[in-house]
Specification:
The chain is α/β, with parallel strands linked by helices. It contains 16 helices and 18 strands. The protein is 38% helix and 19% strand. The protein starts with a strand and ends in a 25-residue tail after the last helix.
Length: 440
């Protein structure tokens, strides 16, 4: 690769593979890129050379670029040597080993950093940032720290990594695919599998397939987000099939209408209202930073409009909502997630039972709305069995620690399976299934 610096032509010792040649033009022409690759593709080398090129071409005063890995030690081991190697032919390059900072002849600087100390980046700006192994980086690092750094310079970001289950990287991957449809000139998503990239020789790939556990091979080399967790209750394949289903109002006419409400537990959790009629679940209503009285008002409006046959509300944090709705004359049922299951020999608590019922509904014909948040929430919950052989779910606290958020939308849908519900007799227009296009 050749880069011009004033009148000087310098040859960088980088010879891109075919897959890297396909990646570079998209990194050049899109502001936000999500790159999902198999192991040994050379994504870090690709990203380092992209950083160098953009930094050398920048004519603004004091350009700043950052390479970010989950841990500082990891970032130094993976990217720092590459940066020094590929920038070595440039005259006047300054290398600061203490700060892991490269100063280029035009005054641009490139830092190598770890996401384990993200606060060190606060207060500065960035022309471009590469976030490597994004599956292991907490999502609030980008939203709270990196994204504000890009504002003043309208900087770019590259998110890249190998799948590691249904976590923040998987959620970003889904959002980015939709964004690329709406803003194709801004967002780009690239997926490079080992059986398609040509980087690994076919005979070596076949050897890997035989020597590697199937789930690891699917994850690491076939870029399968669902492969890493063998104990995922609801696989992504089942969720995607459910999202592709649809039912007409006539097909749902005599099915019960049920509403599930999951009030927020902590400051950054979401309050969710989920409506379901028989085999069809409608788009969830998601609210942030809504107090109990305001949420109760939203639920009351939905009850008046949707006319459900049953309303189930999480008792854990919904006490105020339940009391207010009952004060207003509505009949609602409180459901303690940690309470006793109706089948105590099979499920450790009510939450496990509701999720199991929901999983069966999805696999047996349920239709889901095409919501990226819901898909991510449904596919991130793991299960195991206690000493009595009863199924139990991974605690919400562990899910939040692992994925950065609680599965609030999925919990609200699960509440619609809290108890069997019979449809009430209806008259007039209300006997037909509801529409999704109601304005709250």
């Amino acid at each position: 690769m050749k880069k011009a610096l004033a009148d000087l032509i310098v040859t960088i010792p980088y010879y891109p593979r075919e897959a890297q040649r396909q990646i570079h033009p998209n990194l050049e022409t899109h502001r936000f890129c999500v790159l999902v690759t198999h192991r040994q593709l050379g994504k870090t080398v690709c990203a380092v050379n992209h950083l160098l090129k953009k930094a050398l071409q920048n004519t603004r005063p004091h350009p700043r670029y950052f390479y970010l890995a989950p841990f500082l030690k990891q970032a130094k081991m993976i990217a720092w040597d590459y940066l020094k190697r590929y920038s070595a032919p440039l005259p006047g390059v300054g290398v600061n080993e203490a700060e892991l900072c490269l100063r280029l002849p035009n005054g641009a600087r490139i830092w190598v950093c770890g996401a384990d100390n993200p606060d060190a980046l606060r207060g500065t700006y960035a022309d471009g940032v590469v976030l490597d192994e994004y599956a292991q980086i907490k999502p609030d690092v980008f939203t709270e720290i990196i994204r504000p750094m890009l504002l003043s310079r309208e900087g770019w970001a590259v998110f890249m990594g190998t799948p590691k289950g249904q976590n923040a990287f998987f959620e970003l991957f889904n959002r980015a695919q939709k964004a690329a449809q709406i803003e194709p000139g801004v967002w780009w998503v690239g997926v490079f599998r080992a059986d398609e990239s040509g980087v690994i020789a076919p005979h070596e790939l076949e050897r890997l397939r035989k020597e590697t556990p199937p789930n690891i091979f699917r994850q690491e080399y076939l870029c399968d987000f669902t492969a890493s967790a063998e104990n995922i209750l609801i696989p992504i394949d089942a969720v995607l099939q459910a999202c592709a289903r649809n039912y007409s109002s006539a097909e749902l006419r005599f099915s019960p209408k049920i509403m599930g409400v999951d009030p927020a537990r902590f400051g950054n959790d979401r309050s969710v209202i989920f409506r379901r009629q028989g085999l069809k679940a409608f788009e969830p209503l998601v609210f942030r930073q809504l107090d109990n009285m305001a949420l109760a008002d939203r639920v009351a409006r939905q009850i008046d409009w949707f006319r459900p046959d049953g309303v189930f509300i999480d008792a854990g944090c919904g006490g105020g909502v339940i009391d207010r709705l009952r004060q207003l004359g509505f009949s609602v049922t409180e459901i303690p997630f940690g309470g006793t299951s109706s089948r105590p020999s099979q499920y450790a608590n009510k939450r496990a039972e509701m999720w199991a019922e929901m999983a069966a509904w999805i696999k047996e014909g349920g239709a889901l709305p095409d919501s990226a948040e819901l898909k991510a929430d449904l596919c991130q919950v793991c299960y195991d069995f206690d000493i009595a052989g009863r199924m139990r779910l991974e605690p919400k606290e562990k899910i939040k620690e692992r994925c950065g958020k609680s599965p609030d939308t999925a919990d609200a849908l699960a509440l619609t399976f809290a108890s069997p519900v019979r449809p009430h007799a209806r008259e007039g227009k209300s006997e037909f299934a509801c529409t999704e296009y109601e304005v709250v």
